């Protein structure tokens, strides 16, 4: 299998509001995939469709070669705010996970809890935000899923807790070859851990692809003012701004830009994402793409 998730024309509407529109994607297996976009872009909707919590309004989705359904042992899901049961102890959570999941890896769960220094008798409601996130991640990966879905799992964590969470996630993914799709508005975190990127803006996919390929093919061109349409084939203008004498273009190029009148600069991942947001006419960047 080469794709963990395949969608064709996937659409989800709630009455008159469209949460996800005409989404066509092939998310490769064996990768850590970053799903990024502003609040309300459709990230949570796509993840919930992927794990079977929602049904499409239109279109098709296959996950690991099958129609998704809730409770699949092949999927692990950590929802927003890393929900745990405040009145249950850490040990209670592990027993609950073992009861619900026939493929439960008891040794993995207990080893992670010990490595994290969590007290099995501690109630989850008394844990710190980072500890609750780590407990939720432990419950998800002890299922031994083939695909792990994470919906902004580190958004509310402090920088140290975020780093520890991501280190644990990366160690597990690297050791087990698990496919991971993680939504986040923290591009610095995604740039550190993801090798594939999907940008969702206003319910639509704006760009997706291998991170190295995206970084290698996007450039900022600065030169004398000109019509972007004159750049020629193989060059997609993502964003353009102009003064009276100068043009600045963000370009995705499959052909070399060898015009000496242009100054070409490489972009980082945040620059690329913000350019596609601007292309889509998005101005509400309230919580999106923070660098911390």
Automatic annotation (TrEMBL):
Domain ABC transporter as annotated: residue spans: 5-227
GO molecular function, one term: ATP hydrolysis activity
Entries under InterPro entries matching the protein: AAA+_ATPase, ABC_transporter-like_ATP-bd, ABC_Transporter_VariousFunc, P-loop_NTPase
UniProt keyword Kinase present: no
SUPFAM superfamilies in alphabetical order: P-loop containing nucleoside triphosphate hydrolases (SSF52540)
Record's keyword terms, sorted: ATP-binding, Nucleotide-binding, Transport
Name listed for the protein in its UniProt record: ABC-2 type transport system ATP-binding protein
Organism: Paractinoplanes atraurantiacus
């Amino acid at each position: 299998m080469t794709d963990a998730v395949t969608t064709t024309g996937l659409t989800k509407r709630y009455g008159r509001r469209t949460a996800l529109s005409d989404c066509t994607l092939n998310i490769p297996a064996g990768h850590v995939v970053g799903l990024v976009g502003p609040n309300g872009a459709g990230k949570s909707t796509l993840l919930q469709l992927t794990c079977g919590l929602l049904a499409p309004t239109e279109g098709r989705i296959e996950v690991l070669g099958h129609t998704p359904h809730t409770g699949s042992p092949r999927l692990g899901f950590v929802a927003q705010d890393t929900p745990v049961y405040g009145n249950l102890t850490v040990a209670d959570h592990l027993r609950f996970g073992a009861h619900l999941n026939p493929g439960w890896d008891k040794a993995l769960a207990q080893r992670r809890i010990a490595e994290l220094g969590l007290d099995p008798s501690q109630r989850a409601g008394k844990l710190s935000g980072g500890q609750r996130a780590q407990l939720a991640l432990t419950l998800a990966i002890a299922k031994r899923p083939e695909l792990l879905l994470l919906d902004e799992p580190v958004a509310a964590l402090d920088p140290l807790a975020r780093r520890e969470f991501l280190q644990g996630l990366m160690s597990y993914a690297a050791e087990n070859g698990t496919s991971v799709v993680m939504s986040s508005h923290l591009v610095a975190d995604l740039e550190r851990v993801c090798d594939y990127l999907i940008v969702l803006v206003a319910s639509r996919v704006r760009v997706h692809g291998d991170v190295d390929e995206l970084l290698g093919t996007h450039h900022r061109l600065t030169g004398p003012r000109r019509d972007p349409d004159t750049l020629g084939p193989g060059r997609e203008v993502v964003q353009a701004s102009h003064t009276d004498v100068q043009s600045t273009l963000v370009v995705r190029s499959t052909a070399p830009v060898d015009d000496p009148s242009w100054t070409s600069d490489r972009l980082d991942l945040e620059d690329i994402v913000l350019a596609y947001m601007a292309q889509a006419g998005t101005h509400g960047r309230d919580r999106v793409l923070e660098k911390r």
